[in-house]
């Protein structure tokens, strides 16, 4: 197959997908989605009946965290993917597109499983549903990280449609059927999302990707842009892991645990990055990514009594493992396993996600009434209703089972969706057009020589001198 | 008139305006402004008297939203205007200046109309006043969008002084006299602000603006900077529309409605942008701006029972209309109507604002006790005091009247202020100096050959040696 | 000493410091740190006992402010230091590293002084401790501002270790022993941090720093990056100053005071910046820094009844003094006092911090029952326990004493730590390697001509044609 002949024209497919799916959303929302009792105008009467004050509306417990999570999804993930020298538009722009579609589809999918009011067959949404929709989208954005620069926006929309669907089923099995706890989604979001993306990347393997290797790196300012993403993810991760925890001590503890885990990760990331480079220089890729691994790993156990020193230990290990992953594993995976992972999500989400799942299982299994208090134990692990007879050790087993389900859904789902995305109808780029914004964006104006000239022009009297020196310079650099 | 002769020296006028007006603010604040009962030290006694807990201080209901709105005003609007290749300083810097002045003047103007304590003649301010001041400033920042790159900072200060004054009067008429509801300010902020700016731009029409057309575009990284503005506006718009809604379900519902509206807008913006370009490529201008139109249009009806599917429909339409506006209307307005609209605020604020006003009127007119509950209806539409006999249908009429008032104030005020700004005393730039930071900023160092030269220059005294040393350096680095 | 021979290899020292200190943190956290009663799983029982609702958990009073402060520390301080053309990685990256280490050490140091539970010898942490840890780190980040570009990451780690230690002792003396109030840390954070950094800079004076003067400036886009830092600091400063104030009116008033102070500062900064430049052009350095001086000065008196007009006056003065400092004082200090202050922290933190301390002393001394109410006075100044007999005038004296302590600790501590940092073992850069990311970062890829060439290369097969076409293009664009 001559890649040169690939057709990246998405002028019909992209508008069609956007308009048709958005119309479908309108119809499905019309049929199914209504406000829940805390966001409905009847709440004034309702709260008097329950003898609540306005401030006890769930909105005030969760809205600040929601906005932080929202920033992580759109600015955090978006800007983290601007690091390539010529794919910043695609990184932040397509992230924006698929997240905006994904949250709508997630409200429906998660609603059917978790928020369906059986009295009238409607899904009732409130602030917690918005947070969960953002979480659900995060799985797909993680998957995008492995495919960054190699797929078309239409492929990304398809990836999101199936990703959200798989996520909702997987989440229902893990949280509701298996009764695993996963407040920050180490298993449900990160493990699933990362293996979903890696499997798709394996299915879409491009043996000739080196043809666009000239664009597969960063420049100075694109690295600084990526730091915006890194820092907003890093700073708001405590909100991510605490956003849907229990009111009160649950949210409080989850924020503290995540904060500590992340702090510890930064130091070991710097240590390993420096240790493996000549002269101990730091690598921006590690600082941008591995520093976040602690937040991923703190997800499942965030609301447990992980203890402050426990958090630091988890963060310590994640920083080491994730950075080593970038140094040794990513090249190995590309060469031997034929998995091309643009952003290194295996190091940032997959491995730390699995670690998080294991930490969650161990912490749950070792929970005791002494540490949690009786009510605290029931409250934290939700040993109520049909699960009222569960004990910590069995909970630990259920956590481990949850991790396996996440892995299976990620890998299995990724292979199936990858097969679909291989169809030659989605407008994906040729091997030498990858990582290039010109493929899908109009009028990409790189800071160029022409503008340079028009400026110099003002200061110097001799145009030919200017051009000549410039010419010489370019000739030399060509010969390098 | 030979534009070349325009004097852009603002060394007297800018410091004079800043110092004199700031001094006036100090005097007026001294005479008029005090803390309200929730921010005064007497509150400790006060709350015991009312049997409230600390958490029921209005601060905790509104502060998270306030900070989000604050980010929208300074980072959102500021960075959205950095998209021009050589006017990023002016975009974010002058935005900063006029917003900082505007919030002070707004506290006074809005205070006289809304927060005056008649017992002592003082304006009592709390967190809600700060939010309203930010809202008030938003109107002027929107107007700045039409004028970006074509006016001096002194003109912007004048625009803000009059803009805030007009805003406060218009707002008082619409909200208090007419009793229209406008939580997110589709009419009061966006329609007014946009037509105010467009009218001024019409009055300041520059027939020879093409002389600086070389600078009237973006470069790669300035577009990425603008995406910071876009995303912070997009993410925090739910806070904007819910910030001053009723405690409890009002704020909760407004946030959900805006979130859904915005999600839907992104998809139709992408669809239309792709449909009208060769090969279906996306245009960054549309992604940066039209994706926000849904937030504007959700403003008036944000706290009404617009229903989730209703929000998606509003967003759908706004994405389509706003993007089509950028493609067809902006060039038409510039050519035929002599309105030069740098940021396309007609597409982002004016049209969606009017749509928002209409949606608000229709939603209000069709409100029913069935949907809202009796108390909910009274609460949502504030049918109390002298308006206790109003019904939804009359409310709908009042909403429509409010929209007309906003339009009249915007267009009328803009023409008058535009006439004032045409006086040749404000230091505005010549036609071929527009969109250029060098006009008002010291020492603008573009990443270029010149800076390279000025660097090398330090090492050698001779210009030819300069080129030679550069050549040598490169030759050496080649041979390394 | 021949600077050329300096060894900037940190391949052993940096990993060693990171790993050993992080391990020490784990051990110390294991021995000392536990959850406090509001973040412990026992809280469910605890709150029922106290008859509290979940929303009265301190988490909900402070978490939104905490996240804002967190953004200031990592994005605000980090990006403010990206302004140098070639030291953006170092600015934002090393800021990240030392803040992540500092918050852990601060939790311990501050914990021993303020949160030690004497019943079991453990430090009990909650959300307020996290905020205080961020505050504590701010002092060290301010100090980094004076040293930006001239020190190695290992030196920064040492600076942070000692800085946090000194901070905790100084804070204990000022707040607990002297009983000064300092909600926003004008004295404790800014005065201390700035003089600590300036003293270190004086000890590390580099007479030949001009050798890297080519890099000691900004480029266009690095200035825009720095504006991200400026704006996030400016916007969230009200959260900084109110974060640990009393619940209710205290936090409310502190936010309002800071907001007003900052607004006023912007106008006078612009005025002075314009007044002292040819043609009244603005200087980005002033806009980036001096606009923040009002927030620093509002720190101590933030929760006092400073009155809105009082805030505007403080802001007015700070804008003037800070900008004049950049114009006159910074060059003077470098030449005469041998203090090289890269970011001008003397103008942004030191002088405004001292002003803030004085404003706090005056405001406290002039407090009256009439203005505060009896309970309000006791509540605001914490005239309880062994300080129950204090009156405002004595409180004013104590405030002034606090300021002196902060100055002494800053200058004295800085001289001692500076002496330690002069040891030739820390891998600091040579004089002509300062302000250059290539010293400590791998693979720094400046946007350059070479990448342009590699692109053009694709269009033409012949190297000389390539250069020729480029030459032609440049010639044509010149003639346009």
Automatic annotation (TrEMBL), chains A, B, C:
The chain crosses the membrane at residues 12-33, 87-108, 154-175, 187-205, 225-244, 256-276, 306-329, 350-369, 400-421. Residues 53-428 form the Ammonium transporter AmtB-like domain. Its main location: membrane. Coiled coil: none annotated. The keyword Membrane applies. It is found in: Cell membrane. GO terms for biological process: ammonium homeostasis. GO terms for molecular function: ammonium channel activity. One of its GO terms (cellular component) is plasma membrane. Keywords: Ammonia transport, Cell membrane, Glycoprotein, Membrane, Transmembrane, Transmembrane helix, Transport. The keyword Transmembrane helix applies. It holds the Pfam family Ammonium_transp. It comes from the Eukaryota. It is a multi-pass membrane protein. Belongs to the ammonium transporter (TC 2.A.49) family. Rh subfamily. Functions as an ammonia transporter. May play a role in the elimination of ammonia in the gill. This is Rh family, C glycoprotein b. It comes from Oreochromis niloticus. The gene is RHCG.
């Amino acid at each position: 197959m001559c890649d040169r002949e690939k057709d990246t024209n998405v002028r019909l497919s992209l508008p069609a997908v956007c308009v048709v799916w958005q119309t479908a959303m309108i119809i499905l929302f019309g049929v199914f989605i209504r406000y829940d009792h805390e966001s409905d105008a009847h709440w004034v009467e309702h709260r008097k009946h329950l003898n609540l004050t306005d401030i006890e509306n769930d909105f005030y417990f969760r809205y600040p965290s929601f906005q932080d999570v929202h920033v992580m999804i759109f600015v955090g993930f978006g800007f983290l993917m601007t690091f390539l020298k010529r794919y910043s538009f695609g990184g932040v722009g397509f992230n924006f597109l698929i997240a905006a579609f994904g949250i709508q589809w997630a409200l429906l999918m998660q609603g059917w499983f978790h928020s369906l009011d059986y009295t009238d067959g409607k899904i009732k949404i409130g602030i917690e549903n918005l947070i969960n929709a953002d979480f659900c989208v995060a799985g797909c954005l993680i998957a995008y990280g492995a495919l960054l620069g190699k797929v078309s926006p239409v492929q990304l929309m398809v990836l999101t449609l199936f990703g959200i669907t798989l996520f909702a089923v997987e989440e229902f099995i893990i949280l509701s059927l298996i009764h695993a706890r996963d407040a920050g989604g180490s298993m449900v979001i990160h493990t699933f999302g990362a293996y979903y993306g890696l499997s798709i990347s394996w299915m879409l393997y491009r043996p000739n990707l080196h043809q666009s290797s000239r664009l597969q790196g960063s420049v100075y300012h694109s690295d600084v842009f990526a730091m915006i993403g890194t820092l907003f993810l890093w700073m708001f991760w405590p909100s991510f892991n605490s956003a849907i925890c229990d009111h009160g001590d649950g949210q409080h503890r989850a924020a503290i645990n995540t904060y500590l885990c992340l702090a510890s990760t930064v130091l070991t990331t710097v240590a390993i990055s420096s240790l493996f480079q000549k002269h101990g220089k730091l690598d921006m890729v590690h600082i941008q990514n591995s520093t976040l691994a602690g937040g991923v790993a703190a997800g499942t156990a965030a609301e447990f009594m992980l203890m402050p020193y426990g958090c630091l230990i988890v963060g310590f290990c994640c920083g080491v493992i994730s950075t080593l992953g970038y140094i040794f594993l990513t090249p190995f995976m590309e060469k031997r396993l034929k998995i091309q992972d643009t952003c290194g999500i295996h190091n940032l989400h997959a491995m730390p996600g699995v670690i998080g799942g294991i930490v969650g299982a161990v912490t749950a299994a070792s929970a005791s009434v002494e540490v949690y208090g009786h009510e605290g134990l029931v409250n934290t692990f939700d040993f109520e209703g049909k699960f009222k007879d569960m004990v910590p050790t069995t909970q630990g087993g259920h956590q481990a089972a949850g991790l396996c389900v996440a892995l299976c859904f990620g890998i299995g789902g990724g292979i199936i969706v990858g097969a679909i995305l291989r169809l030659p109808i989605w407008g994906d780029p040729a091997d030498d057009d990858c990582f290039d914004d010109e493929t899908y964006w109009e009028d990409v104006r790189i800071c160029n020589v022409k503008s340079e000239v028009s400026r110099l022009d003002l200061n110097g009297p001799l145009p030919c001198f200017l051009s000549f020196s410039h010419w010489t310079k370019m000739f030399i650099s060509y010969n390098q």
